[in-house]
Amino acid sequence: MTNEPANSAVPAAPTLLTATTAPTQDAYRGRMYINGAWTESQDGTRFERHSPAHGHVVSTFPEATGADVEAAIKAADAAFRQGPWPKLKGVERARILLAVADGIKARVDKMSLLESLETGKPLSQARGEVSGCIDLWQYAAGLARTTSGDAYDSLGDDMLGIVLRQPIGVVGLITPWNFPLWILSQKLPFALAAGCTCIVKPSELTSSTTVMLMEVLEEAGVPAGVVNVVTGKGPTVGQPLAEHPAIDMLSFTGSTRVGSMLGGLATKNLKKIALELGGKNPQIVFPDCDWDAMVDAVVFGVYFNAGECCNSGSRVLVHESIAERFAQAVVERARQVPVGDPLHPDCKVGAIVSENQLSEILGNISKGVDAGARLRLGGKRYDAKGLYLEPTIISDVTPNMGIARDEIFGPVLVIIPFSDTQQAIDIANDTAYGLSAAVWSSDINTCLTVARGVDAGTVWVNTFLDGYPELPFGGFKSSGVGRELGKQAVEDYTETKTIQLHIGERKNWWLPRPVA
Ligand code: NAD
């Protein structure tokens, strides 16, 4: 199809790729996994997930009741208090985590297809993510053997101090729809490596790979009750994980709105929290950068996962001397991006996850244009079956506009000019968020000044969106609390216990001390 723009000043968005073949497999019938048993919900209700690209039913799941959640928490609590999981040797837990990694490897095709059909993301990208999860489980297995406490031999002849790291207990894990297996794999293997037991609540839009992972865990020998999966709605399933007295820690990834609400409930109930939330991540572009690399990374940064990415490079701050050249270059590059059916082998940008999400994105675009910003590309839904949105670019944005500050969570780039380095840093920091940022310049002084000055948990220098299990990930300000990954990832799921060992005879407290 051709896609003529309504406004002739706006060039045509990329033509939509259509599928070579329609998906034909039967809907995946997921069940919950509670105390080592596969279960339906106690009232027998189920819900369906439709493919946002093709419209058909991809999967169905039990819609949990409060009683199902209670059963899962009880199972995790018993598995923690009675063991054996928290008491296993590190090497034994590591062997099981490595077996899980192998189990994921054996299911890459099946998991990737379901992930692509439920999220709308390109199949090739889903395959990369599922394969990447193997490495996360392997990395966590290493930490299961090496995470340790501390000893203090410096406290005097009669004292030895030992600091143990013990598993924190029962952990509730709540995950979003945009990277379902990946985000679960940033949490679960590390909690298990620590010796914790867990209740997992996947997004109701993308529960398949979480449920399939339980088949893998079962095969790998994870004992009953150690990991429990409950499927269903946020308020019924998620909220008890923030409130229940048997839960010791809540680890949540999702929106800042829901995360701050659940974080508030959890801390009121004196639980530890870890929150990975939204972002409005600036890429800051200086005139002396490697132009081609920068243009590619800007287009990749905002259209990867259709912009439904907490790390999306959704704001570009560009030096005013190159602002117009930059806008024209990214529009030209964005027009080459292959958008369309996620199963098409060339697809790089698939469907938007839901009708709601699509209308929220369109609403944000309209607000920006109404506020005086200039639409340079896209801005509309494709006139086709499926939830597809044109790659969109908006320039002449000022830092006080809503589109410059709010997370849009779609394929929408906003361009904001700046005049000097300090102003770029000030604009970058002038939002509630602080997840990630990038700087593009060939001058090391500019790069380091920006990297040190921006409020962000991750700063990329002349690159964007790279990630490694070795490197901690998380946000400043409203982007979250705590860090995932890195060598401390397992420690987050532990409590320390201080043991003080007295050596030799202990002097009585009430005896008079000799006069010096
Ligand atoms: P969301 O907050 O709507 O949902 C996340 C999870 O919370 C889902 O499982 C959902 O069912 C559950 N939930 C929703 N309402 C709830 C309630 N009232 N009580 C308990 N649980 C509830 O987020 P989403 O739409 O699934 O994901 C998109 C958001 O996630 C974006 O804001 C994005 O930036 C953020 N995100 C952050 C990171 C990160 O690492 N910082 C990663 C991915 C996504």
Automatic annotation (TrEMBL):
Keywords: Oxidoreductase. It comes from Paraburkholderia caffeinilytica. PANTHER family: ALDEHYDE DEHYDROGENASE-RELATED. Coiled coil: none annotated. The keyword RNA-binding does not apply. Belongs to the aldehyde dehydrogenase family. CDD domains: ALDH_SNDH. This is Aldehyde dehydrogenase. The active site is at E276. The keyword Oxidoreductase applies. Residues 38-499 form the Aldehyde dehydrogenase domain. InterPro entries: Ald_DH/histidinol_DH (IPR016161), Ald_DH_C (IPR016163), Ald_DH_CS_GLU (IPR029510), Ald_DH_N (IPR016162), Aldehyde_DH_dom (IPR015590).
